[in-house]
Amino acid sequence: MLLPHRERHLIERIGWLRAAVLGANDGIISTASLMVGVASASASFNEVIVAGVAGLVAGAMSMAAGEYVSVSSQSDTEQADLERERAELASQPEFELEELAKIYEDRGVERDTALAVARQLMAKDALGAHARDELGITDAGAARPIQAALTSAATFSVGAILPVLVAMATPAKYAATAIPGASLLFLAVLGAASARAGGAEILRPTIRVVFWGGLAMATTALVGALIGRAV
Length: 231
What we know:
Elements: H1 14-40, H2 45-91, H3 93-106, H4 111-133, H5 145-169, H6 175-197, H7 203-230
Helix pairs in contact: 1-2, 1-5, 1-6, 1-7, 2-3, 2-4, 2-5, 3-4, 5-6, 6-7
């Protein structure tokens, strides 16, 4: 006799893993780039620290606001689709039954079986069945604006605080090299950890995130140096 077991698939981590990696990655790159750019403009050490802290706060708020607006729009669309589906179920239930059965037929289920399954699912929860199989809306994947906003702000802040702490712990004369060096190390660790958590190979994602982080910091440093000379 086979014992029931809970299968855990790596794909289940996609949602939270993507949000966490994106927030932390943005926090490290944007804050470190800002600090490196300010340092390259021959600013004082205190100005570099202030720029980092300001970038952390502004970036976290921006991430939260952007994520909240984006996910709220998704939620509004989902609710509009659910209201329309609810109205159609009330006005033309037979058509909706056929529509659901056709979905199962297209997936390879025989006509009679598809119709029986559709009828049973609609008898239990008609809107839930159509939301899941017709609209692709599930409880696990439903839009949650506040949760998304708080998660983005928190993960961004965790990433952004790292280059700030490095600058605070480093003598002023070494800050210009310590900040980008440590930030690239943080990005490499983040890339490797996220790849491992997602079950992917480690080397390519790590190289990818380090390359783009390094490019961002180098570009910002160049712009900061040019503006510093101009003004």
